[in-house]
Amino acid sequence: MNDDSTTVALADSLRRLADRLSPGDRLPSSRELIAEHQVSPVTVARAIARLVAEGVVLTRTGSGTFVAPRPRRESAIADTAWQTVALADRFVGTDQITAALGPAPEGTILLDGGYLHRTLQPTGLLGSALARAARRIDVWDRAPVVGLEALRSMFARSVGGGVGAEDVLITSGGQSALSLTFRALAAPGSPILMESPTYPVAIEAARAAGLRPVPVPIDDDGIRPDLLAEAFAMTGARLLYCQPTFHNPTGTVLTTERRRQVVDIARACGAFLIEDDFARLLGHGSPVPPPLAWDDRDGTVVYLTSLTKPAAPSLRVGALVARGPVMERLRALRRLDDFFVARPMQEAALEILGSPSWDRHLRTVSAALRERCALAAGAVAIARPDWTVTRVPAGGLHLWIRLAPGEDDLAVVRDARRRGVAVSPGRGTFAAEAPAAYVRLGFAAAADHAELTEGIRRLTASG
User: Fold this and answer.
1) 203 phi/psi in degrees, rounded to 5
2) By CB count within 10 A, which of 6, 17, 100, 293 is most buried?
3) 320 has which bridge partners?
């Protein structure tokens, strides 16, 4: 047996011995190993050096060789159960229904998105606006917590009524505004009234803030005032979240009469009304009613909007409009969260809103969305007459489709994914039990009419 094989054999023997011992136990001395294995001192030294390099043993000068602490095996399942206790009941959802479906395979036509496809985005305007903003000498300076005054003034003018720049807080998009408002306006454990169905991430954001969503049904005219008043009385809620214009997912527009009633009910109950006006700039050509905040004089309505939906996903610039002490609370929470929206993004938003190309873009998108909406609604009606497109919306990005009796929305969505198209199951839009099975179909995320048509063909094909 040569020296190398002798070293390997001794190292193997010592490795097996170390496995039987506990970390910290002492191995036989070099003299004992030489006598037991009939090897040279050099062979012992080499074998131990090999085990030290492997992390099996460690040596201490003058003390000997000891079994090293055993590292946690990568394949071992980590015990994170303690986190359940530490996190208590502050559940934070992350669209679990969609997550359970897994990522969409390559080549899937995405009809579950809530943003414009790149072909509908004003990419030229966005690029030039960002370039112009970057040339400003103060673009990298710290921005005010509330946002640039010029940008706040633009948002104030878009709301109208008596809203001024002092009533506006710039946010990092609409979702940031929504989360901030939920945390500012109600204490954990409080009820929050929400339309049923509603924007699913709003339900998750409310629960993440520790609030208890209470559903209030809607019909073809929007949220029902009679049930809203009853819900306020039963729960003692001081917060209502609603989307009165091009509601997500149904596309409903709250009627003029109900708009007044809903604000009056909230005011009478001493409650805040959060108006999520995400789709105002996504109308399909018909006149759009003014925001609820337009003629609100006493701060009942807290209004939020964003440039993200009508422009591009990464234009994370939005605004909150509020009056009275609640604005100071919103500002304080904003300061704690992230101080301010990045100034280059605010400067770019100013360039975009001040450009004549912005209005041209909105007109182009309006026409494109109207065509896509009609195409999608017609294709679904022809392919699946047993499904019901609840309405052809006058704005927004989605169709709300009631499935045939006995069908399961999650099963339909899973089958569609197997055929290469993604749509959203309706169950996530309900804070409580769903009255029927629905799917939400987005018609703005497809590349063109051909892809939209093919996506609907795959969706409606029999299993």
Assistant:
1) -60, -45
2) 293
3) 169, 304
